[in-house]
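Rotation project, supervised by the postdoc (A.L.). Task for the rotation student: set up a whole-complex structure prediction and record inputs and outputs verbatim in this book. Inputs entered:
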Amino acid sequence: MTTPLRDDQLDRLYADFDRENLLPLWTQRSGLMPTAPASKAVPFVWKWATLYPLAQRAGDLVPVGRGGERRAIALANPGLGGLPHATPTLWAAIQYLGPKETAPEHRHSQNAFRFVVEGDGVWTVVNGDPVAMRRGDFLLTPGWHFHGHHNETQQPMAWIDGLDIPFVHYTDTGFFEFGSEGVTDESTPDVSRAERLWAHPGLRPLVGLDAKVSSPIAAYRWQHTDAALRAQLELEDEGYPATTEPGHAAVRYTNPTTGGDVMPTIRAEFHRLRAGAHTRTRDVGSAVYQVFQGTGRFHLDSGVTEVGTGDLIVVPSWTEWAIEADTELDLFTFSDAPIVERLHFDRTYYPEGP
Amino acid sequence: MTTPLRDDQLDRLYADFDRENLLPLWTQRSGLMPTAPASKAVPFVWKWATLYPLAQRAGDLVPVGRGGERRAIALANPGLGGLPHATPTLWAAIQYLGPKETAPEHRHSQNAFRFVVEGDGVWTVVNGDPVAMRRGDFLLTPGWHFHGHHNETQQPMAWIDGLDIPFVHYTDTGFFEFGSEGVTDESTPDVSRAERLWAHPGLRPLVGLDAKVSSPIAAYRWQHTDAALRAQLELEDEGYPATTEPGHAAVRYTNPTTGGDVMPTIRAEFHRLRAGAHTRTRDVGSAVYQVFQGTGRFHLDSGVTEVGTGDLIVVPSWTEWAIEADTELDLFTFSDAPIVERLHFDRTYYPEGP
Amino acid sequence: MTTPLRDDQLDRLYADFDRENLLPLWTQRSGLMPTAPASKAVPFVWKWATLYPLAQRAGDLVPVGRGGERRAIALANPGLGGLPHATPTLWAAIQYLGPKETAPEHRHSQNAFRFVVEGDGVWTVVNGDPVAMRRGDFLLTPGWHFHGHHNETQQPMAWIDGLDIPFVHYTDTGFFEFGSEGVTDESTPDVSRAERLWAHPGLRPLVGLDAKVSSPIAAYRWQHTDAALRAQLELEDEGYPATTEPGHAAVRYTNPTTGGDVMPTIRAEFHRLRAGAHTRTRDVGSAVYQVFQGTGRFHLDSGVTEVGTGDLIVVPSWTEWAIEADTELDLFTFSDAPIVERLHFDRTYYPEGP
Amino acid sequence: MTTPLRDDQLDRLYADFDRENLLPLWTQRSGLMPTAPASKAVPFVWKWATLYPLAQRAGDLVPVGRGGERRAIALANPGLGGLPHATPTLWAAIQYLGPKETAPEHRHSQNAFRFVVEGDGVWTVVNGDPVAMRRGDFLLTPGWHFHGHHNETQQPMAWIDGLDIPFVHYTDTGFFEFGSEGVTDESTPDVSRAERLWAHPGLRPLVGLDAKVSSPIAAYRWQHTDAALRAQLELEDEGYPATTEPGHAAVRYTNPTTGGDVMPTIRAEFHRLRAGAHTRTRDVGSAVYQVFQGTGRFHLDSGVTEVGTGDLIVVPSWTEWAIEADTELDLFTFSDAPIVERLHFDRTYYPEGP
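Outputs recorded:
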């Protein structure tokens, strides 16, 4: 019998614990240590049709500049008490830059990327290297790299930002530093210097033989991603093993110096499902998906949501989920899987239980 | 100028953000991304003279058993809003087992250890292997190992538990499973089977050549720790490099299969300072110290506290701190350094700033 | 005084050593353990103008088929006593396949590659995947992969083979197995299936997340190598660090799953020197160079040789050497550096000595 | 049909190959690339009863000193053409030091160890650290560590040396440097400084957190080895998994900073077989065994040899072999397994073939 008598002595003990900044395990255990992850974060879907107009309104009303730094509007998971956290570890936001605007340079320990679901015309300048942002591109700003953005066109542009801000904030591991008010290189090349040095398949420059914590490839271009996915589906049609399951092509963005994830805390992948294909799983760790093109349905626990271009789907840890593709469905996704795996909390899901 | 006019349109925009579960970065940035870690946790000291009597009272009033599982009383950092967290990532508790009591078996993803500041007579049974607990010993229960404890004596025994419970809870990575009501092996050997197989310096059993995430050494015995520290100070006296700084001997508990930390999320070390020696530093990541013997002073930010045997000192991330030894001062410590280092958030502290 | 009297007793002792299969160190030490590597292999240059006609004559006289397996003619370093070894560890050969000929399939532990200095029209079929061979391509056949070649044209084709045959032979680590008499897939696609799956910069297929000892990229195409080198020189012209020294661009062929060398025993690189550029070094381990295009001079110890397209230059361990480019000079090279580095025998060369 | 007509043209071609330092594969292939390793080295046994008296005679006749450096008498495998190589990669020798003699200091890239089958009284001084040599001890001299030996007693002492001399010689990777004529520290402590710093189970000094290519433990003492083996057999008796097969206990000497082999090229282990126990295997790579105590039989290919204390047994790559213990049989062994494994030539043996 573990429940003590709730008598005066016990009340006094608990009061003394409280005064001495102590808490007993036996009253907390089941909440603290559930039989499986029971995230306070909830599965949730944000529609692009909602996000984009709100970002536009912010573009009209809120200047971008030093202090606030970015016109970024973050997904605030309804389960996380009003914090700007998509999941306990991940930040996801729509960032909006008006015509001819510049977001000033800064750097921080937090690892960041951009993914472009539509538009172009902005260059992000990473450690002085201007990187064009175009539809379908995945762009990196690893921790402690200076970066600013400037829009060279008369049109606004919006994209999504993904970072490990909640994780860094929670673990007290972040540093931040302001940089130049403008961008340090205003040129607008088609291809960044990082890509010219690094984005050749299987080739490593001899000046880059030192160990690199994050990928030196500043931009993973859509034409390569698309070609890789198309090749997988064609190989499947020809009868060769290339897809992860029938009709499901997928690539992981990797650090060419290690073959591992692009940054220490963030995994990023791109998936393509043929019309009618479906996939399901359950993972330790949380993820965010964005529909790049096509339509389909996300099953999240017991709910189902129709999704289309630009929609963002948040999947907390250990959520049971599935995707069904109505048309060919292209999905960008990022997650905290490197945190989970490097600390050995990953666990294979078996339908019958952990 | 980044501060927008606080007019009606802006109020409506913020209200719309709120309704759509969105939060702007520009109002949050400075709190979310400080220039250096600004932990909500505060440096704090718990006195053994306070802890132990409270644990005794719990021993009288609260049974130990299935459900509550353990008579463990956790340090609740005053800055962390009443949660049983010593730091954002670490759990530290005093655990108390009365005469002839048994804490039932269970297992969990959370990595755990015990450190014994005084007493003996309890065996912790880890995956069926009975491990005697004695003064000065450091004992492991890596993630997903079944474990229970039983006190074979007529005296109570108390020790400290360290775990990554807050980190696992926050990142939604934990699983928990009940095991046997009693312990699965009630024998009381002096030395565990794990030690007999593994605790020989530099020798690896051929049955243990597979990769091991956590150390297979169930108990790091005081006589080895003490001998290693004594040897370092003697070597220093003989003129050879062996101490980390004058009068400061230190060992890290390691996984003999990798040479790295004992568990994926927790680093543990033992430090010995000669009377009059001192040390100071500042680290990314949080730590807990326990005085094993001797007296001295901890400087934590601007405060100073006298410490003696059993006292627990909590050091949040990026706290400036120093230790001065009045007598020879033996300190056990554990931290979340493996999390920080594996995710590449470690940073060298230079007195002039980051 | 270490030289013993050469008396009868000593003669008898040495005779007894000999009879018992023993050898004293003291008579052998200086030869066995020189102050720096003193290779029996000599620096040497083979001219393409000599090699190619001899390969043609072999094409007329010697059939290719089961048993001999390949019409390959190996460089036999003049210092190595008539063995078919370019260096103590490396094999280098010209291989020649006549019109419509097929070299049958086999596999072996030895790691192999091909490099094509001129011509096309042959497909090498590696584990059933047909890989077109074209000018400038670097093609892999890692250990224990089945492979055969077939010439689809009415012209002969020649290329160079590089393997670790001498090393494997010396260390007794090799296995060999015959395969199909013909090739198992006679199709002639422009691009291999391996490239379609793997040769996308920074993208890893989700079906290929397992650890891979050797690169899964079957062919490193000339257009990528050339583009990478051109970009380095352009970046140099623009003022950015990209070349290893002025006018010297270089890439290493790597395994995209690790960022390391393509195969466990063989490193391969491509270097481009501008007209007038030069480079010099001295390495532990041996290497072979082939001029791809351009002309220049190799200094090897005290000798100098003019080199041009197709010429093969062998550089034994610890040879002092230098290259001067007369025109833009493109050089393919391979070496045993992974053996040296994985076993920690690498050593930085300082001009003043080891 | 791959055998060409042996006509004049072909003779001329082969003569031209020869003149141009070329060799055709097709006449060499089967010897160069056998279906399984066919070592020129042969399995062989050297008897201690033969070795020791010859070493004694050398002690009487041959001084030890600068130039010859060591009174070491190497096993010369009868298959290896009179070279002082136990196997193609390994050197094994008996070294003998007379009363009060000193072997001068030197260092070399070659990795070395000593194993003491009987006697004591010599200190080996490794990078200035005196290390007592006693029966059953395994002592390291990793590459490029200065070392000399001095006998402090009036008795001679002999032990075995193991090195990678043949491998280093063959691959041209070795450097050698003379050091002090005497030893740089003539003190005779029971325990070396390296052991005082490093030989504590699972404890790493904080001054030793840098990566180490070789083990920093200068001496693996017999009492630890013996205790580890005894524990395994006792655990087996108690019904727990601890032995590699029934009656067969075994430990690998490891680098505590990695958990891997003690040196980059050499693996060392100690095996204990109960009377009546037996073991068999077949490995890629070569090994040397020395009987430490007990008697038994080695089956090597089709032969059988009785062995006893001090006898040395050489096992070339891919030899089928077995051991039968007549009494409790203690065996020290070393091999080139790290070379084989780091270069991925290891292969599991299945009785039915590769």
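Student's summary: Residues 12 and 193 of chain C are 68 Å apart (CA to CA).
Supervisor addendum: Chain C touches chain D through 96 residues (CB under 8 Å).
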